[in-house]
Specification:
The chain has about 240 residues and is an alpha/beta fold. It has two domains: about 30 residues, no CATH class; about 210 residues, 2-Layer Sandwich (Nucleotidyltransferase, domain 5). The protein contains seven helices and nine strands, in the order E-E-H-H-E-E-E-E-E-H-E-H-E-H-H-H.
Length: about 240
């Protein structure tokens, strides 16, 4: 039995849906999202952070810090398959076993692109402050250190720690504006290159995979060129929500 969408009839052919998606320019694997901040202080907070990117204080170190929580150690069969078009692609079974999760703290050096990471079992305030201690201790020159963070609870109300580290300044992104934190770009690279579709038999395998990626990434690290993408109306048309309108 066929069905219709926008007046076009779909037959029972294996590739009918694929052909229609291709015709409409819809890629199911593509992930795009937009977030609009309602923070009343958005302009001033955003200007502060962009200023650190484009014109940082002289001799100051600018870091982007965040955590990637709940990284799952999933065990599943993986391999390579040949499609009917002759392409060889990586595949993995949809069924898997869960072997727990890890949290990953990361600090990105905006000027060089170098990354400093630490895996933990949890993401409590103490874990965050211990990570920050390791980051600060690794800085040979104790000039100003400006840290860009989101508004997660463990990042705030750390007056005692900041008083013990008077050369460190925390800068918070506006609410619903995680795209202002450059370390999110690096998290995306990590997910695509090392985590997505991978096979981990236990937490230790996951930890080793993350550490191996960080080690391999280090020599090739370079700073990101920060820019905010302009989203135009035409880019919003080919979406699943509008597919059958």
């Amino acid at each position: 039995m066929g069905c219709s969408c926008n007046g076009e009839k779909l037959n029972s052919s294996t590739y009918a849906v694929w052909r229609l998606l291709q015709k409409k320019g819809i890629c199911l694997h593509r992930r795009r999202s937009w977030s609009v901040s309602t923070d009343p202080e958005f302009a001033s907070k955003a200007a502060d952070i962009i200023g650190l990117y484009l014109n940082p204080p002289e001799n100051a170190l600018v870091l982007c810090v965040d955590e990637k929580p709940g990284i799952q150690a999933l065990e599943r069969a993986t391999g390579y398959v040949e499609t009917k078009s002759g392409k060889i692609v990586q595949g993995y079974k949809s069924t898997y076993k869960r072997h727990g999760t890890l949290n990953l703290f990361a600090a990105l050096n905006v000027a060089t692109g170098a990354i400093n990471t630490q895996t933990t079992e949890q993401k409590k305030r103490q874990d965050f402050l211990e990570f920050m201690n390791s980051v600060v201790d690794d800085v040979e020159d104790k000039n100003e250190i400006h840290v860009i963070l989101d508004n997660y609870c463990i990042h705030k109300n750390n007056v005692s720690w900041l008083s013990e580290n008077p050369n460190v300044y925390f800068h918070y992104t506006p609410t619903s504006a995680s795209w202002l934190n450059q370390v999110e770009i690096w998290f995306g690279i990590l997910s695509r290159k090392a985590l997505r579709g991978a096979n981990f038999k236990n937490i230790e395998d996951l930890r080793k995979a993350i550490e191996a990626f960080v080690t391999a990434y280090g020599p090739k690290a370079k700073p990101f060129v920060w820019r905010k993408r302009e989203v135009k109306g035409a880019q919003l048309r080919n979406t699943i929500a509008n597919f059958c309108n």
